[in-house]
Design goal:
Blueprint (H helix, E strand, L loop, with lengths): L1 H21 L7 E6 L5 E5 L6 E8 L1 E6 L3 E4 L22 E3 L3 E3 L8 E6 L5
Antiparallel strand pairs: 1-2, 1-4, 3-8, 4-7, 5-6, 5-8
């Protein structure tokens, strides 16, 4: 009987966790942290998962501690640039895909990222 009771509690806990995770209210749960070219650390808590978001001051490094992947842009409007423009010819100059729980550091000669969008965000 004890085993069944524990198993039911675990199952109930898992269902509760899944229910909470499914109710994100249109936000990428977690924190995005970035460092500006001036060295200021900025934290964004649970950003909306819809649309384009500016990174005031620009970002030289970014840490994505949200449950969603993000895409970083050198353009303020989350628009793709021509490959290499403002990215010192880096491969993937249009944007940078940053997975969940990952970070990307400054590359010498790189322009700061000025905006981001949440991958798979709302319509």
């Amino acid at each position: 009987m004890i085993c069944r009771s524990r198993a039911r509690r675990r199952a109930g806990g898992v269902l509760l966790l899944l229910a909470v995770a499914g109710c994100s209210n249109g936000s990428a749960l977690g924190t995005i942290q970035y460092t500006t070219p001036a060295g200021q650390v900025v934290k964004i808590q649970s950003p909306d998962d819809d649309g384009c978001h500016r990174l005031p001051g620009g970002a030289r490094s970014v840490r994505n501690y949200t449950v969603d992947d993000i895409r970083l842009y050198v353009d303020e409007r989350c628009e793709l640039t021509k490959a290499g423009d403002d990215q010192s010819g880096r491969t993937g100059g249009e944007s940078f895909y940053l997975g969940t729980q990952a970070s990307v550091a400054f590359t010498p000669g790189q322009s700061p990222w000025l905006s981001y969008s949440v991958v798979g965000g709302g319509a």
